[in-house]
Amino acid sequence: MATAQRPTKLSLRAIFFDLDNTLIPTKHGDKKACDQLISWLVRNDHMSNSDAEEIVYTYLRIFRKCPHNPEVELNAWRLQLWSSALGGRYEHLKDAIYQQWLRLRFHFLALTSEVVDLLIQLRSSYLLVLITNGTSPSQWEKVDRLNLRRYFDGIFVSGDLPWEKPHPSIFFEACQFLGVEPHECIMIGDKMETDILGGVKAGLAATFLIQTSQTQPATEVKPDHVLSSVMELTHFLPKRPLMKRPTLPLVSDEDTNSNSSDGS
Prior knowledge:
By secondary structure, the protein is an alpha/beta fold.
């Protein structure tokens, strides 16, 4: 696929954000939730620490491998995973454990106050869009439980569309929705093979990689900037006056069958 011609001068109107491990700490938050869940199991179900660790980390391993089978309802799918991790001895605890895991998970995935302030500040001058890979149920669950809609002018989940990052069409769809051109947009994300490669192929003005401890695969492109945190983004942006927001159509949250995910 040909890469669109990229502009040499930044005239920024819109900022595209990835979700998992960019704005919310999905991998780190899931690990913290599981650590807390182990303590909860030992304390409330008189389970040995070794049994609790084996169960919870078995679940986390298989959950990360396949966070959602779109052919199965989301909660039913996760309960299947918990049944597998619990085995026969503790299978009767699956409903209680699942509810506790959900509570802990979204506690640790919540936007920090610093990120909230950043989004509010940026949205006073730019159009903000969330572009995330994953199934509709799993990603919209995050959007709704974490109250993310209020911070964005558009939200695009690959499960609602025929494409996912790095296909440039998902970026073009966001541009058309906002009424902007690709060269007026930048992309911020944590994955070279989806966020950065996709942003370059779509001809966005610039790409920003959030550096993580995970080894990044080699790609034919490089980010324009590497950040240790999304909080560093403002150092690279031109100053703009407060904007009058355009009237935008509602974002569809229609469920379809994509199963690739930025996170879990």
